Amino acid sequence: MFFSQFVIDPGQVFLLTPLVMGFVNLRPAVPGHVLLSPRRVALRLKDLTAAELTELILCSHRAARALEELHGVSSLSITIQDGLLAGQTVPHLHMHLLPRRAGDFGHNDQVYDAIDRSSSPHPGAARTLDDMRAEADALRQILN
Ligand code: AMW
After folding, report:
1. Predicted confidence (pLDDT) per residue in 2-24, tens digit
2. CB neighbours (10 Å) of residue 42?
3. Is the pTM of this model over 0.85?
4. Top mutation candidate among 27, 78, 98 for ligand 1, by most atoms within 8 Å of CB
5. Got the DSSP string for 28-50?
6. Which residues are catalytic?
7. Ligand 1 pocket, 26 CB below 6 A?
């Protein structure tokens, strides 16, 4: 599976439908930060078909429930950075889902700075595959 030009290890994937994939983040902005994308490499929201859009929102509903259960949270930030000027760094449409916890940021909108920081690759910031697999396994168990 590809996330733009990046190969996504099957172990990272926690949700897979004919049109949409859900996978755990290589550099999460907060613990439990995951992504949903169309399986087809499509750049923008406007490029998705009606079937992809429908499946994406249905998957976000399932993933949201699983994230809340796994992480014991009652709130999520759900966002799409749709285009370069909106902060999109990976040219493949993706929805971010981030578990939110009391006091995680001084101001609520700092979550967007954290997403931006996590999106700039820097040495040592990436997680191990084992770590990502464990998180994806736990989500899969809840979903299946
Ligand atoms: W964007 O700034 O395009 O809205 O967000 C890109 C996201 O993709 C970031 O959260 C970043 O950590 C994540 N990411 C980049 N490469 C990978 C990868 N190989 N596997 C999982 N997540 C990735």
Report:
1. 999 999 999 999 999 999 999 99
2. 16
3. yes
4. 27
5. -SSTT-EEEEESS---SGGGS-H
6. 94
7. yes
